[in-house]
Amino acid sequence: MTDKSPSLLSVDQMSIRFGGLLAVSSMTFEVREGEVLSLIGPNGAGKTSAFNAITGYLQPSSGDVVYRGRKLNGLSPDAISRLGVVRSFQKTSLFGGLSAFENVLVGLHKRSTQTPLAIMLGLPRVKEDERRLEAAAREVLDFVGILPRAQEPAASLPYGEQRLLEVAIALAADPKLLLLDEPVSGMNPAEKASFVETISRIRERGITVLLVEHDMRTVMGASDRVICLNQGTIIADGTPEAIQRNKDVIKAYLGERSSHARH
Amino acid sequence: MMKYFPQAFLGLLVSVPFWLTDSYMLHILITTGIFIIAAMSLNLLLGYTGQLSLGHVAFFGIGAYGSALTSLGFEITLPGGIPLGVSPKPVWFAMLVGIVAAGFTGWAIGKLAFRVRGAYFVIVSISFAEVVRLVAVNWVELTQGPMALNNIPVLRLGWGSAEVAFLRKPAFYWLVLAVGTVCYIIISRLVSSRAGRAMIALRENEPLAMSVGVDVTRYLVLATIVSAAMAGSAGALYTHYIRIVDPDIFLFVYTVTMVIMVVTGGKGTLAGPIVGGVIFGLIPELLRTMAIKPEVQWIIYGVVMVLVVYFLPMGIVPALRNWRGGQQASSTAAASGPQMEGAGK
Prior knowledge:
Chain A is an alpha/beta fold and about 260 residues long. Chain A has 2 domains: about 1-85 and about 175-265, Rossmann fold (3-Layer(aba) Sandwich), CATH 3.40.50; about 90-175, P-loop containing nucleotide triphosphate hydrolases (Rossmann fold).
């Protein structure tokens, strides 16, 4: 997107400290409405810590996270999610005992209007709401391309499809800003290529995407803008092309690429 | 047609007093039924939210004492010399008071305890039950302590000649069945709804549940309130059936009995506590009628329990469902998926 797009999320001088370890050091960046922004950097650069701090799973030691003019610091993860900032997890995270369909139904929690009393009384509007949710769940599963798997237990899906289901759960939660933590790790090359296309379709839905990813092909293919972190500090911010040419990035990140080739 | 199995089973239960005339057997069914209601309520917490409440008997006992005291009336002096007297109230109203009191306690415990999870929650719940028991033992002015509350009145509904007194066993049996059916319907509605999915999501993956906006604590507290109120209704039924209540109602072994019923039957399934409750509620009595020595009775009880847990670790109902699912899959290649909320509908 262009520089003129308004800021959706801004991270201001955020630091995260674990005891003596400074995981993130006064990080400042903003996510603009409608863009796909990638956060890259070697392992331990502080990407996931930054994710956790933005979404309330971790309190930053200092600094602010502001979403649409509202401070997120101190809010619980579920409250942040209800504001429209929804994340996925680095390690595969599903409701393993439930079917893919039921996983997405849980994801639709915010879109449901059922109240406990109406449920216990068995009011007709609860049934109507359930039908609406079921249709929405099918739509989301279809969007990520795993609708035929709807009735299978989530834990028994192939790994690549589990990752797609995670994205489906997050999409079900009606995000304005979607944070994806290494969504393509574990996918095969064909799945990765089609996921790049899925990200652009997510953006077409008006959802802004913040992506943490090691897979450079995905990052360069999907992003409008890339920020590179090293040892908790931002060392570069620019278009994918500019990042690929940036000497600091090559030194810090791409220079270590051979050690990541195993992934 | 498994679809109508719950209705058919209910029909069978309704018919019991017409062909089972043995008063003692009916008594066993009534007490077992009361415990099944308590086990169903425990299942909502243990099976669906995944939190083990080992103080569940406290809600049962609060329902019992709350109902008994309201129906008998009492006069106490509060600290500071303030007198507080309650005149005897009708039993149906007293039972409601017992249920609400238990539900309110559930709310308080939920608020206090659900900051903690797993082993810590277990400890908080055990301690809570013990505190309530000590209050019942020591607040003699209110509870008569170990002397027990006696002559608890019988539930009467209706007026004049249309009045029904739940004094005879068949009538009380149907009352227990009615309360149990209401509890079953409420639980089945809850667990197949947004609220139930939030509870199950907490059991399956709490961080992921929060990431999609589920206010985990809110739904845990909701589960505790509903669960505690149902356990309270079981306690209220118990107290107006046995018509005497003493602090022994808070014995830990009652909680253990409920846990056994839920775990062996299949936690997290609607039918589990009923199946487990029927089996482990009736075994001791059936063994007693066989005139076996008491020690041997309990050894058999223990062995059956160990065998169930060893061979059917998920419980009887899930094992049956898998077995039936396997049969269907081999014969018709049925494609219906696993149900989130277990048996039933």
